[in-house]
Amino acid sequence: MHDIRLLRDQMAHLREGMRRRGKLEELTPLLDRAEALEKERRDSIRVAEEAQAERNRISQDVAKRRRAGEDADALMAEGRAIGERIAALETRRQAVESEVSDILLQLPNLTLEEVTEGGEEANRVVRTWGTTREGDVGIAPHWEVGERLGVLDLPRGAKIAGSGFIVYRGGGARLVRALMNFMLDLHVEEHGYEELWVPLLVNRATLTGTGQLPKFEEDMYAVPSDDLFLIPTAEVPVTNLYRDEILEPGDMPRAFVAFSACFRREAGSAGKDTRGLLRVHEFDKVELVRYATPETSRAELELLTSHAETVLQRLELPYRVLQLAAGDTGFSSAMTYDLEVFAPGVGKWLEVSSCSVFTDFQARRANIRYRAATGEKPRFVHTLNGSALAFSRIIAALLEQHQQPDGSVRVPAALQPYLGRDTLR
């Protein structure tokens, strides 16, 4: 959510931010409405203050007339009429402010100045790691090797729940558990994150805090009878951990890691990547969330991204890091790096992590603040998050990148202690 002062003092800056995202034409009606409402709010405050001054003057005149034994009924009636007018102005002002708040909830974050303009075509590869097996012949797609090895059962997942739901069996189920423990141990023991276990159901205030609501409600799995939603990522409950709280000096920065199942309806993506594990409705993920100060949040983005990259390096999966252009940056994000692994069996780069800094956009929505020193006025924290990592596409890449000529799959050394074997066969 944006600072209301942008509407009052920096509307040109706000419009420019929407233009850089390629959203100005779409959002101009909202911006025009917000600008008009803000003018109405200021005018109503001025009129109410003038009316209150007049009411105060009348009250003084009434008191003088009463002391002099004179009739004050007409003045008192005038004062009551002004009071009713002030009450009506206050009611309207509250309605205007509520509508402005609703509009602010619909406006995406401003991207950082270093984020390039343009859409997906303007995304920039900033670095790569490892050697892909692009061009290698005979590498089966992950759904074929997974079925042959007995680690994936996609038909029965579809039978139980529908397309886009997965059953892992035997070594596949153990692989999911191994990935969870490996990633959690790495981030807790080497990277210094506090481990959390969070609810899979959250309320509207929680999803509004991180920016999923109101804009993306159609992508949520909902429980209408309780007005709850299944989480699309652990970012949602973890970021909201300190909603409506103030962190005290010494509490910053904070770093949290959590494993969770994630649920996404993927509305509007029908027909895209329907085979295998590339686009599913339920998947597992280890998520990193950081609270930072405004002065350090940009550097914290590099740190968080490096932590996600470490997982890929330990899993020996070639990857590239993309800096997203403004038009491809998510609604709440100010800057995002996407991590993509190469899956040679399907011949695609697969996004397995988005590492983002949100500046104070989420913190304003969730009212998460901190004091830099005792007695200082609270400031909004800067929030960051990144997947480290999403399992389904990681498993797809593992089954393809580490596939051997005999059809088995080599288990990376870092994962062997957790899986208890060096090969899936």
Task: Explain what you see.
This protein has 425 residues and is of the alpha+beta class. The protein folds into 2 domains: 5-105, Helix Hairpins, CATH 1.10.287; 120-424, 2-Layer Sandwich (BirA Bifunctional Protein, domain 2). Helices cover 42% and strands 20% of the residues. The protein contains 13 helices and 16 strands. The strands form 4 sheets. An 8-stranded mixed sheet has the order 1-9-10-11-14-8-7-2. Strand 4 and strand 5 form a beta hairpin. Helix 2 runs antiparallel to helix 3, helix 3 packs antiparallel against helix 4 (73-105) and helix 5 packs across helix 12 (391-401).
Question: Characteristics of this structure?
Answer:
2 domains, BirA Bifunctional Protein, domain 2, three-stranded antiparallel sheet, 425 residues, eight-stranded mixed sheet, alpha+beta, elongated, Helix Hairpins
Using only C-alpha atoms, the radius of gyration works out to 28 Å
Head-to-tail CA distance between termini: 50 Å
Q: For the largest sheet, list the strands in their spatial order.
A: 1-9-10-11-14-8-7-2
Helix proportion of residues, in percent?
Answer: 40-55%
